[in-house]
Amino acid sequence: MDRISFKDFLQIMSYDVVKNQTCIEIEFCVDNCVDYQASWMGKAVDRETKDAVFWFGLTEDGLQAYEFCSFVEFANSHVFHSKSIKEIWDAVSILSIDACKTQERLPFYIEAS
Fold first, then answer.
1. Is the pTM of this model over 0.85?
2. CB-based contacts of 46: which residues, under 8 Å, 6+ apart?
3. Of 28, 40, 52, 95, which one's alpha carbon is 20 to 30 angstroms from that of 59?
4. 33-71: string of b/e by CB count within 10 Å (b at 16+)?
5. What is the pLDDT of residues 61-74, one digit of tens each?
């Protein structure tokens, strides 16, 4: 488990997934919260609109899945027990980025921005 700065997280999520025909998938957990121990978030291309969407898949049962059209809406949405990812960032541990170890994949996004 790794921690990254919110600035680095913003750089990851700024990557142009539409232009590069790809997606970003981040597996994470929220420290001391039993509900969010195997959660996912990312950025992808919407199949219908062809625009970028930001998303959360917070629980394995799929009941807490959310999509947003902008990073601002995504980062400030109160989906974590009435708090946003921005508000709880200090308690977020990154498990993987694009199925790779955080420290292996992070430089790709930092250098690309």
1. yes
2. 52, 53, 67
3. 52
4. eeebeebbbbbbbeeeeeebbbbbbbeeeeeeeeebeee
5. 888 999 999 999 99
